[in-house]
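Throughout our pipeline, every protein is held as a single compact record rather than as scattered files. The remainder of this section carries one protein's record, kept here as part of the documentation.

===
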Amino acid sequence: MKGYIEERAVELANYIIERKTTVRAAAKKYGISKSTVHKDVTERLNRVKPELADDVKKILDENKAERHIRGGEATKAKYRGANSKAG
């Protein structure tokens, strides 16, 4: 594996761990696709730094468990904004 890809995987993992952020937010921050972020932190990172991969996995699992809540909040905010504009 090329060195810069390994470095990117570690950097993405550290970003996700430090900020407890989502794959989507990390992808936006680094200007790469969600698929690339996910592949970096699940597959590539596991080969480079397995202990770091375990830490990221915990956060990704937590995000997955909570995503329905975030989605509901986003929808609620969307319609709350639409109602205030109409009224």
Remarks:
- The chain has a mean pLDDT of 90.
